[in-house]
Fold UPF0260 protein FHY64_10020.
Amino acid sequence: MSEAFPDPIDRDGLREGYWRDTPLEKMNAKQWEALCDGCGKCCLNKLEDEDTGEVALTRVACRLLDDSTCLCGNYEIRHQFVPDCIRLTPQTIHEHMYWLPRTCAYRLVYEGRDLFHWHPLVSGDPRTVHDAGVSVRGLTVPEFEVSEDEWEDHIIEEP
Ligand code: SF4
Ligand code: SF4
């Protein structure tokens, strides 16, 4: 990993490929947190069609998302500011599969698939998720700038 770009998530000392043979519910806290690729896609607001259940992604981001790093501005105490921020766990992940991004590492492992080459656990570099064009860096507008009835105008394809 580059010294100039320290990984915001602590992935040091983890066994290579642990996600291939460790079920989600057997992962320890560090292994679980390290699965996150830092794409920021789960921090975008979504629109759900009440009739079809279809979910559309918008580029309107949670107020705490930093568009330049794709990180939560205050992850540890985020629920004080965003009470409904999802807390993904091995026990609840199945409830969220209908909206989790296609490339989300939690989805991939839940489905028994491998991580992509650009995942920081594979590449060893947290920048590769951005270089591969699968993060939301530079794509978002903050939710405090767009009223909810205008979110429809900001629907995007998942990067
Ligand atoms: S979509 Fe998944 S991998 Fe990407 S930031 Fe969210 S939890 Fe992490
Ligand atoms: S509170 Fe943080 S982790 Fe939760 S959706 Fe907002 S930016 Fe993402």
Remarks:
- The chain is about 20% helix and 15% strand.
- Residues 18-156 form one domain.
- The longest strand covers residues 55-61.
